[in-house]
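One-letter codes give the sequence; backbone shape is given numerically. An example follows:

. . .
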Amino acid sequence: MHILNIRGIDDTLYNKIKKESKSKGMSINKFLVSILSGFFNKKKNVEYHDLDDFFGTWTEEEYNQITQAAKESRTIDEEVWD
């Protein structure tokens, strides 16, 4: 574990940090570590390009068939759910 000192925090910011950490039942240290961890560990948006070769290749007829099949798969069969 490392120790980090932060300088230049004014009273207003310190009081906000202190109040928020207290409301969460955490020490200031644990609160700031959780904030920093959340910031640096958040998922990055990933772009996938594995289907790019298929984009725009369907004919209108194929599109209509696939759209219809998707609509039918979303229909609830009342007999099954009774």
Q: What stands out?
A: Residues 11-41 form one domain. The longest helix spans residues 28-41.
